[in-house]
Please model this.
Amino acid sequence: MAFPALRRGGGTGTRSPRRAGDSAHPLGRWLRAGGPIRVVGLAGAVVPGLVLIGLLIELIVKAIPAIEYSGLHFLTSSTWSFGSQYSTPVTTNGLTHMQSEEFGALPQILGTLATSAIALIIAVPVSVGAALLIVERLPRRLAGIVGGFLELLAGVPSVLVGLWGALTLGPIVAAHVSPLIADSLGRIPGLTGFFGGSTGNGQGLFTSGLVLAVMVIPIIASTSRDLIRSVPVLPREGAVALGMSDFECARKVTLPWVATGIFGAVVLGLGRALGETIAVAMVCGVALGSLPTNLYGAMVTIAANIIQNLETAITDPMDISAFAELALVLMVITLLTNVVATMLVRRVSGTTLPVGRGL
Amino acid sequence: MFPLVSEWQKGYTTANPGIKISTASTNSGTGISSAGQGLVNIGASDAFLSASQKSQYPTLENVPTGVNAIEVVYNLPSLTAPLNLNGTVLAQIYDGKITTWNDPAIAKLNPGVTLPSTAIVTVHRADSSGSTVLFAQYLNAQDATDWPSSLISSTPTWPKTPGALAETGTGAMVTGAGSKVGSIAYIGDSYASKIKAAKLSVAAVLNGAGKYTTASPAALTAAVNSFPPAPASGSEELINTTAAAGYAITGYEYADVNVNQSSSAQADLIKNFLYWAITTGSSSSYLQKVNFVALPTATFTVAVNLITKISG
Amino acid sequence: MSESTSAHGWPDTRKRRPSVLAVVLAVIGIIAVALGILSFVDGSSPRGIAGLVVAAVVLPFAWQTGWATARNAADGGGWPTVSAGRKIANMWYWIACCIALALVVGPALWLVGSVLAHAVPHWQWSVITTNTTGETGGLKQAILGTLLITLGVLIIGGTISILTGLYLAEFATGRLRTVLRSGYEILSGIPSIVLGLVGYLVLVSVTGLGWKYGLLPAVLVLSVIIIPYITKATETSLLHVPTSYREGAEALGISSAWALRKIVFKAALPGIVTGVLVATAISVGETAPLLYTAGWSDFTPNLQLTGQPIAFLTYPVFSFYNLPDQGAKILSYDAGLLLLIFVLLVIIVGRVIVVWSRRHAELQRCHSSSEASW
Model:
């Protein structure tokens, strides 16, 4: 009897029959608001977090015997030995292990950090310089082709880069590049210890750094290119109007504008370099238990050690424990890098705003 | 070992169509651990199971399938006759105490040979290897001061030597040694044809009787016969034989198998293959290709007993 | 920089001689280059490098000083003098950038070239049609294994990732969103070998679930590795769908579930598909985790989930590359060639999708016009 339009809780009288029952029933309302997808989505969204937590728990639980056994020695000692395999196991402090078994991971930790450092030292200037050239000078079509090369390099499996590094790059580095560097930089007093000396056989710190640089360059270069492209035209035109050269414009306008973004890309590349396993395992020379004497010497990284010896280690619980501890150390290093970088970016971007933002 | 397993795979599947065998060449440590965990049906290893491995995998047994040797191989194209080397010199080379080929210690063992002044590049296995165990056992047997028993392991802590190469897998040892003049390596003799193809030379090694021998089938037979018969477990060390004609770095090649298989059908498949391996597979047509020697009669019985224990 | 295209044209250098300083510097520079090259040929690289460095410093100054003097003089000295140092710095900057570009493109070309040079001359079609036997044969079972693993990864990992990205972009708010997002972002920073190690301990080994090598452990571990990539792509592309779409849908009375399904998700689809392609490329190229979860096999893969090792294409590259057998090495390069072809396919398909999505985005023109009016 009353005006249908004024009926409480309802909409207008002209309702499409398809939607009958949707506002009246809570289930219908839930369905309309995307209820099922919410539930399923939440179920999916917690999976990565759960996996992460499970991973950490598993590693920590497995690593406890080795942590108890080695203590801080793990991070400071250079001897990595599974002990005399054919002797009888002994027990110290309730932990069963082989005689003269010692886990000192210092060369591996330093190796991981050193290869990544060399990779970044080479990759960052090269990537940023190439990005500047691509954006500011290359014609459209060439820039597209170079972008294709970057995508190709980014997509190449790391095992292929390791193959190229071991069979093609390594011998050339050993025969031509290392002697050149040793002859020139190695003569500067003070640097002789690092750059001079025996030039090795192409498998070592230098080749590993080069191989990692090749893998990190596409990440930093493509991100830098996108960032530099996003710098607005007005500030750059203003620089030219003021009479700045291209170099000065890049130094004072373009790069500061995108500095935090490039820093983020560098951290991304560093993360990849720290965790890279296969390519480094193929070119590092796997010198367990000793630091290289100079730039060209054989070394080992945490990841390379794990991949070489994991299957043997499973026969001995203490060995597996040591590998779990190694994995934890590697995870801590990568996580620390990410956290420190995030904090730095937050700190920096708060205070240094490039000129012209907000125009 | 892998060249022989490849031959066995070809021969067995031809004789028994319907059986498929998948092989992979990894290393002895993987062979033992994968067999122990049931990840593979049969693992292979140059080294017998250690006490701790036995306690970790109580149902794992090592079945001797053949006799092989570890050759000491070097890359000096200028020399024609094989060099004489003994355990002391080898231990000091791998220790870093001897660094050039014309060292007086090497010259003393090889009178009349002009040794080049090339630097020695030691090549060792980066992964877990039974060949390393046999080699280390020999070094320790001849020179326990330079190579203590703590260094007898499939993954020892190699002393630092200048320019050392660490290779993954026996095949890579051949490639690595072949790529660098002056290198020295220890390689299983089943790779003899590849060693020759890489233009590497084989050394004559000092045995426990004071004689220098190379790894010929006769020398292997003499070595294996100079030791008592293998115990029921199959694990026996055949290093540093006192037989005058025997080769010093000899060992059994083991197949590591789990006594408890998932099903009796699976157990029968494995048993048949292993029986075939130590009978038809140990005939001269197979072993000649890889320089192995067949098991002596007593060890053959031990192997048969071990195979019979496999059940599902 | 307006000096290079002077309105006065080329300066009339006939009338003025370059300064004495310029001539002296030029002579020194040329002698330095000659000595440097001779030293290199002689074998003494420090002196060679020193000579080239001296030339590199001196010659540009000679050029700038001589040119600037002549030009300045010809124009009657009306131009403001730009310091030679700044111009030379600019020149070196561009030279350095060109070298940088060469260093970026060079290794890519070299890598692809070396794989092609080793694989193509010995290519046989039997590589695709026969299985591996030991260290020879073909790669058929490896190709099939990789395809099977990738399919499983896309089904399991892709579903979880898209759901996660959807939930994070559309429904999660505030703290829940930060927590869930950091969950998968931290996961993206974990090295793949660590995930392989944990997968081995938990799934494969008898100390864990004891599934042994198989398809399922491999798929699960690889899914965890690629989840962050697809999730990020889904979340980003969903967030990029303009609010005007959702507002328009709500204004028309469309339920939010319907709008999400038919409008928002469809608009975000190209970005999601690009993310899926990236994840495919990554999962095809992974080696370390597969070594410990998939094992290796010479048999054609069946669909058995656990207990049957499965072959994958990156194994031959890692295991056969330094074997003395020429055949094994060629097989290793053949696997590398197949991997490269696959990566190329992924890139081409990605580009096609980007071009197609741009052409079919109806509101693109409306967008650009609205932005220009701001």
